[in-house]
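Could someone model S-adenosylmethionine with this protein?
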Amino acid sequence: MQVRAKKNLGQHFLTDKNIARDIVDSLKATNLSRILEIGPGMGVLTNFLLENKNYETFVIEIDHESVEYLHKHFPQLKDRIIEGDFLQLDLESQISDQPFALIGNLPYNISSQIFFKVLENKELIPEVVCMLQKEVAKRICSGPGSKVYGILSVFLQAWYNIEYLIDVPEYVFDPPPKVQSAVIRLTANGRTDLGCNETLFRKVVKQAFNQRRKMLRNSIKSFSSRIEELDAMLLTRRPEQLSVAEFIDLTNSIEKLLNN
Ligand code: SAM
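Reply:
Sure, complex below.
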């Protein structure tokens, strides 16, 4: 029995076992006793995950047909197969209140939402290894000065070290996706706080990138009528030129204006 690929669920099954093994081998899971796989499909990664005796594997899959396939082919997983939507999953109560790693060949249509969920649960998720659309992988890994550097790059790089691991061609999937793919690894950078008001940081980064071609002077003026009191050089810069550390400094400067 094979699972019939459903486009609306981003189902492109990886057919190359060597690449599957490379992806699983990229997971360090240092000191982690559990891992969660998002969207196992027919279990090409799960197969290798189960070879590892140092951690316990959980999977979450939204597609009922795939879930039936998994129960049949991986009976040892038993109640560690969760049928449902990763975006709705309560990680602490359903997976673990202790840190665990995430892995998956992601459904590309919801990869950004998956990363926002990772950020919301960053204390629980010190490592992520995933395959995703190459364009999004490049964006997440890019730094200041790059045209594709954006909100998700800044948010994720604030908390994780990010490595671009491998490119994966279309022809190793069934059916082949229209886009190219890549594998990345996120590893918690050890920060426990940003050294600024994090709610304001998120607002500043979003606001600045919402008008990414504009100088900060224009894009962030709604935060304070005294924005011109900030460093004149800084105000002439565009968001894509600012490092994470500079966004943190900018947040602190804006907060000072708001409190004085
Ligand atoms: N891991 C398999 C592989 O590599 O061949 C399948 C990868 S496929 C790109 C993405 C998988 O995620 C599909 O099996 C799909 O059904 C599942 N999926 C889609 N949306 C999901 C969601 N919100 N929560 C959990 N799984 C989801």
